[in-house]
Amino acid sequence: MQTLNVDLGDRSYPIFVGSGLIENTQLILPYVAGQQVMIVTNDTIAPLYLEKAKALFPGKQVDSVILPDGEAFKDLTHLNLIFDALLEKQHNRTTTLVALGGGVIGDMTGYAAASYQRGVDFIQIPTTLLSQVDSSVGGKTGVNHRLGKNMIGAFHQPKCVLIDIDSLTTLPDRELSAGIAEVIKYGLITDYEFLEWLETHMSSLLSRDQDALIYAVLTSCAAKADVVAQDEKEGGIRAILNLGHTYGHAIENHQGYGNWLHGEAVAAGMIMAADLSHRLGWISGADLKRTQSLIRAANLPVDAPKDMSVADFKALMAVDKKVVDGKLRLVLLKALGQAIISSDFGLEEFEASLHSFVH
Ligand SMILES: NC(=O)c1ccc[n+]([C@@H]2O[C@H](COP(=O)([O-])OP(=O)(O)OC[C@H]3O[C@@H](n4cnc5c(N)ncnc54)[C@H](O)[C@@H]3O)[C@@H](O)[C@H]2O)c1
Ligand SMILES: O=C(O)C(=O)C[C@@H](O)[C@H](O)[C@H](O)COP(=O)(O)O
Ligand SMILES: [Zn+2]
After folding, report:
1. Which of 27, 101, 193, 293 is the most buried (most CB within 10 A)?
2. Is 264 in the pocket of ligand 1 (CB under 6 A)?
3. Where do the 3-dehydroquinate synthase C-terminal domain residues begin and end (predicted)?
4. pTM of the model
């Protein structure tokens, strides 16, 4: 097992990464302050991992709530099911919520923890590659709104993150690829060497080679922990973790939550951001092609949905959380491995780039 730390003063916490961790009670128990635990999961993950997760808390009152599976249920209505369960089982302020699942469960459980009785502890046990490399770390929690992704939420850090790489054995191939999109993101935004590693190890990741997966998870979590430690609440640098997301969130919303997976939409969005970066003269045509090849190699989309228009993108991107005083800010690439947040592009270049993807 290896341990990383997210360095946030009195809100610091460890990320444990390894095999067989979901069987290790010694690891997690010290992060449970009270006697009550509420495990939040969904109807796909429960039959696979809920009994094992329950066994992590010997001697505690362990309750669970099973949500319907899917991005379409990441909303306020279904968030309420967590509060119903907490109140029905009389959980008090010393309770610990445990997110057992992918990013949807992690974001919802974290937000429930941020708001239940004005804030209780929570622990992340991420079971998808995407949640292991990204959503379980950093404390962004929340739910979607009909009019925009993750529009209702809070920053609330977990007490620890338990990443058991073995859970990836049951993950469908499409979900594995979606997770690889966020892994590629770290290479593109801060780590050129990691990008090169990904170019040579993509087949190992896709075949779930354990060493490759552990290396990708550790490198990704370390990159994210470093950025979050510098800027917990996205006042500046943290926005680079949003590469491809302004486009991607527009796609997810337009297509109906869950039809394009988050990672798929981010993959297409990263290509769109790379295309604009190329038009601005920041990255070369060869770099753009390299980015496309890597994303294609991960079995991810490099094009926008056919039924979206330039007007659709512009309308949906205008509600992005990075917009300031009506001005769109995008995460773009100055070079491969170097992202910046910028509004330093003309409407003409932006629209020309969009037109190259959609009608
Ligand atoms: N908070 C953040 O910083 C952050 C970062 C990235 C993404 N997100 C959010 O995360 C969500 C996407 O997360 P995701 O890709 O994990 O999707 P997800 O949570 O929907 O999980 C994907 C699918 O895999 C299933 N699953 C989970 N673990 C499994 C396992 N071990 N074996 C078999 N099936 C399993 C789930 O039931 C689901 O059907 C989006 O809502 C996105 O907005 C948040
Ligand atoms: O942790 C962050 O910061 C990120 O931006 C990580 C993203 O991968 C993630 O999808 C996040 O939920 C997007 O945040 P949002 O603020 O754009 O909703
Ligand atoms: Zn994301």
Report:
1. 101
2. no
3. 179-323
4. 0.98
